[in-house]
Each structure stands twice: as C-alpha cells, then as structure tokens.
Amino acid sequence: MPSNRFDQAKPFLTLAIVVIAWLVLPVAVKSFMRASFFELQAPVAVSASHVRDLQEYWSLRTQSKHELIEAGRDLARVNASYELAVQENTTLRAELDRMQNLLRIPPQPAHRFEHARVVQRDFSVWWQRVIIRKGRNYGITVGSPVVFSGGVVGRVTEVHAYTSVVELISSPGVRLAAVVEGDDRPMSFQGGLNPTYGPAKGVIEFVPLDIFASSTSTKRLVTSGLGGVFPAGLTLGRVVKLEPSTDGLFKTGEVELDPRLGELTEVTVLVPVSTS
User: Fold this and answer.
1) For residue 148, how many C-alpha atoms fall within 13 Å in the half-sphere facing its CB?
2) Residue (of 257, 68, 39) closest to 136 by Cα position
3) Is 105 domain-assigned?
4) Between the chain's N and C termini, which has fewer beta carbons within 10 Å?
C-alpha cells in the first residue's frame, strides 16, 4: 500500500521539483530559455504564414477575368487618390520644414517605413499582442511605433531574429499622450481590459471639463506627438463616453478602437532613423 501511494504521488512530486527549480533559476537564465523557445517556434509560425499567403494567391488565380478587371479598376481609383494625397503631403511637408526653420523648432524624429505581414495573434491575450514576420534581419528595434491605414496599431516590445512582438494599443500596458482632434491639450490614453473576440476599447483620462463626447457625438482621438515615440496626428480611436472623474477636476472616458485591429494582416513599423 505505501508503494502504491508513492507511485500515485510521484507525478506531483516531479511537478513540484520542476516548479521549485524554475523559481530558483536566475532571471538571466529564464530570459535566455524563453527567447530560445520563441526562436524555436518562430520558423513554424513563419512557414504557416507563407502557406496562407500561397493559398490566398491561388484563390485569387481562380477568380474570373471579369472580377480581376473590376478589382483592377478599383485599385486604379485608389492609386489615383493616393497619388493626390502624396502630392499634398509633399507640399505640406515642405511648408512644415519652412516653418520649423523660420521658428527654429527642432525637427520631428525621422522614421523609415518597414511593412510587415502579421504571422499570428496570441489567442491567450487576443487584444494584447500580435507577431509580425520581420525582426533583427530588417533592423526592427524595440519601442518602434506600429501603424496601419486606420491609425496606431501599437509598439514593438520584443525583437527576435526573424519575428517581432507588437503590443496593441488595446493592451492595458500601453499608455501614451493623446489629444482630441482640433484641441492641443494633452490627455492620457491607456488600453482597456478587453474580452476575447469582443470590441476593443481604451480609456482616456485627464480630459478638460469643457470637452464633451457621447455615442451620438463622438470625438476623434489622435496622438499628440509628445514623448517622441509616435508622430502627432495618428488616429487612436473615437471618444464615445465622457464623465467627471472622482476629483471633479477632469473627465474620464471610453475610447472605441478600430475594429480592424482584430483582423490585421499587414502593418507598417516606423523604425527610427538616426540623423547624426
């Protein structure tokens, strides 16, 4: 009987020994093991991403000529609007440079655009992070802002050999300075506690009392440019609710984030460029 009890308790004793050994390991060893395990998994995730791209390619090949012609026309219209936007952006950039030189304002940090495919989303923390298909091999750096057509995606928190981890703005770990469009007073934005697969939301704090927003009269929230990480004017979301804070000096509110954050397939990393 004692032998049988010992055999039954053996798995629990083994688990306890492993847990204790892990707890007493130095932090440097834990970090090395975690990074090594991530790098071991990376080729599998990247290969699966390439397979999905190949499947998408062959699915497009099966479309009729009529559908491809219609898609080409739509793409031509979009390209025409983008060409006009590029010309306007060039003009505005030249005017901004002229005003900065005239007023002796320090220039904004320079970035280069690095487009990357999304490899996978971490399902255990759906609204917290995604993994992209570029890393140190493309010069991605920790802390780089990540954007898409709808505005801010998040920031790079981990960089590996061929992949990088991006923390989404819906994560409570992301906090940055923001302003309401048309107002230059900075506020504090932070990701919220979002349920898996549910709509992503954020929290806005230190909002001036004279700013009002509701679900029927929303306000566009953009980056302020303070802190030198995110360029100014990038969309964060829409302020859909504001109410007085507990101290009565400011307001706090709810920010509705872009629903496309839950289905991203490609993003752009703004890699800082040294001007020295």
Assistant:
1) 22
2) 39
3) no
4) C
What is the distance between the alpha carbons of residues 267 and 119, in angstroms, rounded to a whole number? 11
Q: How far apart are CA 192 and CA 171, in angstroms?
A: 6
Residue in the structure block whose two tokens are 């001007």: 275
- Select from 164, 171, 120 the least CA-distant residue to 138: 164
Residue 191 CA, chain-centre distance (Å), reads: 11
How many domains, in total, are found in the chain?
Answer: 2
- Retrieve residue 171's tokens: 């994560």
Contact 271, 144 (CB under 8 A): yes
Contact 169, 229 (CB under 8 A): no
Structure tokens of 135? 């890393």
Q: CB–CB of 134/118 below 8 Å?
A: no
- Judge whether 168 and 256 are in contact, CB under 8 Å: no
What is the pairing mode between strands 175-180 and 151-159? Answer: unpaired
Q: Name every residue whose Cβ is closer than 8 Å to that of residue 146 and which is 6 or more positions away in sequence.
A: 132, 152, 153, 154, 155, 156, 166, 267, 268, 269, 270
Which residue in this structure is represented by tokens 């506020």?
187
Tell me the pairing of strands 201-207 and 129-132: unpaired
Residue 96 confidence class, pLDDT cut points 50, 70, 90: confident
Instruction: Read off the amino acid at residue 229.
Output: V
The answer to whether residues 52 and 119 belong to one domain is no
The label of the residue with tokens 């010069």 reads: 139
- 189 and 250, same structural domain? yes
User: Mind listing the pLDDT tens digit for each residue in 130-184?
Assistant: 999 999 999 999 999 999 988 999 999 999 888 999 999 999 889 999 999 989 8
